[in-house]
User: What shape does this take?
Amino acid sequence: MVIKYRLSVLALSLLSSVYAFAGKPEFELTIRQHLFEPSIIVIPANTKIKLWVHNEDATPEEFESYELNREKVILGGQRSVIFIGPLPPGEYPFFGEFNPKSAQGKIIVE
Amino acid sequence: MQLRYFIYATCILIPAGITSHAYADGLSVDKIYDPYVNELEKELEYRLSKAEGGLQAPDGFIIHRLGFGTALNDSFAVEAYINAQGTDDADRLSAYELELRWQLTEQGEYDVDWGAIFEFEHSRDYNVEELVAKLVALKEWGNYVTTANASLIYESSEKTGDEFETALSIQARYRYRSMLEPAVEFYASEDYRGIGPVLVGSMRLEGANSLRWETGTIFGVDSDSADYTFRLMLEYEFY
Assistant: This one.
């Protein structure tokens, strides 16, 4: 009985994890030569997404956006996740705080 | 998952006992913390609280705090402060504080962002030592942000003995633009209830540095509470 209960709990946990995973679309962003690639990312409206940011440069970079209300340092050679949204349709610029002239991009929500 | 249940339970239980006690040797009105730690970031911080009236400041009370902090990684940050406090003026060092901030959840990962803060304060003037555990919760509603700090305080004093106290502070802020974010703050602690307007802002400086400021006046809502408490914070963030 106890084993059955534990298996049920485990199954429910796994299902909820799968649901949570499936519920958040994932996007990739790379920092290379102090540039964001791609510089434009289109995401669905009113949906929370996971943005994986991979910094391929040797130096750290900070993903920053007042419009998205996000600020996150990604160390050189590291990968980090930023949760964004749910957002209404619109354009949300972001930039790299350590290289603001070159590292620029925007998220388009539609 | 168990951590989340613990946090939810603590968040409910601590405010439930809020109205009984709080900072007996200082002012309740102070900075309201957000739960975030930004890796590599360092900060130099100045805070001022000045109160008049009520049980806390019948002859006036002023506290200056000067702090330096640094992130240890993307979850933990430490900060140390030296304080000067007094009635009319505060021209000598009277206390020091040590603070550990812990970001518990990734920003935006859950409906509410969570953090925890642990503080130790030694007051030389009043021979008081204080340990504080603070739970920090932040909820975004589009451009509106609500932040709550619920504190459990252990105070050891030669004058009043040992006691536990609690406090709650809440800020509701509108993200109008980075230079200017209007907010309303509410504070509840021992013999104090206050509410008032606050302005928050930040500006980017050269080399990824920034200056953040907060200022406002909190008005006591009953005869025990200080008539007003002015607060100011200037924070220089750099890498």
Summary: Chain B has one helix and twelve strands. Chain B touches chain A at residues 1, 36, 38-41, 74, 106-109, 140, 145, 175, 177-178, 204, 208, 239 (CB under 8 Å). The first strand of chain B starts at residue 42 and ends at 53.
